[in-house]
Amino acid sequence: MTDKRRFTVIDGTPAPDTPAEQVRKRVRAMPRPKAMPQCGRCGGREYIEAKIGIGKSVTKQKLCVLCLMQGQRVVMG
Ligand SMILES: [Zn+2]
């Protein structure tokens, strides 16, 4: 004997419109100038250059300052 259950469709609640989400939306909507690095995590454009190595074998990486201050090492592209 089978008991057929029907699933009822409920209205999905929209994503919470928190202040943080609003900031993310604004950052994403901003035009992105070319050749200007931007942090993929927080959207910040302030970076410091970290150098690894010496002489001709130096590797440079741009690290997001805002993320770095929060203990996150994010390399910007
Ligand atoms: Zn960042």
**In which range does the helix fraction lie?**
10-25%
Class inferred from helices and paired strands: alpha+beta
Distance between the termini: 61 Å
What is the overall silhouette? elongated
Order of helices and strands: HEEHE
Could you explain how this protein is built, in words?
By secondary structure, the chain is α+β, with helices and mostly antiparallel strands. The chain has a domain at 37-77. It has two helices and three strands. It has helices spanning 19-29, 65-69, and strands at 47-52, 59-64, 75-76. A three-stranded antiparallel β-sheet has the order 1-2-3. A hairpin with a 6-residue loop joins strand 1 and strand 2. It is elongated and about 80 Å long. Zinc ion is lined by residues 39, 41-42, 44, 64, 66-67, 74.
Question: Quick recap of the structure?
Answer:
With 77 residues, the chain is α+β, with helices and mostly antiparallel strands. It contains 2 helices and 3 strands.
Helices, strands, pairings?
Layout: H1 19-29, E1 47-52, E2 59-64, H2 65-69, E3 75-76
Antiparallel strand pairs: 1-2, 2-3
The protein binds zinc ion.
Features:
alpha+beta; 77 residues; 3-stranded antiparallel beta sheet; binds zinc ion; elongated
